[in-house]
Amino acid sequence: MVAKLLEKTANIELCHALLRERLHYDNYQKYHVRLHYRAAEPEGKEEYADVAWLEPYGFWADLSDPWRPNVLGLSGESFTRGELLPVTCRFDFQAGKSGAFCRDRYGGILLVHNGDILGAGGESLKAAFWQDYKGIRLEGPEQQEQPFAVAAHLGSVDIARQIKDFLDEVVRIRTLAWLFE
């Protein structure tokens, strides 16, 4: 599948607002929690964020600002204020970072990820991600561009399920990398 990467600031902000709207992000209660970035620093970095728990779908998200990393994680149950949550995946929409929005050949908007996920020890698992990823891959128009994994189609009625499936896939790949290191 080939699509055009959306790189203009206005496009990214509009797509981010559409993502929030399609997930009904603003309708969910926000919880002030601590987030644990597995590999940001040797001890692991923690910071506070207000996350929405999308209970029907089994994941939480901090989609508060397109210009800071948007983080997501899996959770089967509610959490409490100040609880420490592990980050499953980050979508950083700055140029060349992990997340992006693309327009497919039909005009649809896709949420994509470059596969740069972090392992438990802080190492990048990008090579393992692309070796084991079973979802839809998006190739750039020129072969030298990095591929992207399609996390969700913003026009889909089941966008939240698509994101949950992507998060499950990230956990599966991370587990495989841990088992076979």
Characterize the structure shown.
The protein has 181 residues and is an alpha+beta fold. The chain has one domain (3-179). The protein is built from three helices and eleven strands, in the order βαββββββββαββα. Strands 6-2-3-4-5-7 form a six-stranded mixed β-sheet, covered by helices on one side. Strands 1-8-9-11-10 form a five-stranded antiparallel β-sheet. Strand 4 and strand 5 form a beta hairpin. The longest helix has 21 residues, at 159-179. The mean pLDDT is 87.
The low-confidence runs, each spanning 5 or more residues with pLDDT under 50, are: none
Distance between the termini: 31 Å
How many strand units?
11
Query: C-alpha Rg, in Å?
Result: 16 Å
Multimerization status: single chain
Count of helical segments? 3
Strand and helix order? EHEEEEEEEEHEEH
How do the strands of the widest beta sheet line up side by side?
Answer: 6-2-3-4-5-7
Shape: globular
Strand content: 25-35%
Key traits:
single chain; 181 residues; alpha+beta; 6-stranded mixed beta sheet; 5-stranded antiparallel beta sheet; 11 strands; 23% helix
Overview in brief:
This protein has 181 residues and is of the alpha+beta class. The protein is built from 3 helices and 11 strands; from the N terminus they run βαββββββββαββα.
SSE blueprint:
Layout: E1 3-6, H1 9-22, E2 30-37, E3 45-54, E4 59-62, E5 70-74, E6 84-86, E7 89-91, E8 99-104, E9 109-113, H2 126-132, E10 137-138, E11 148-153, H3 159-179
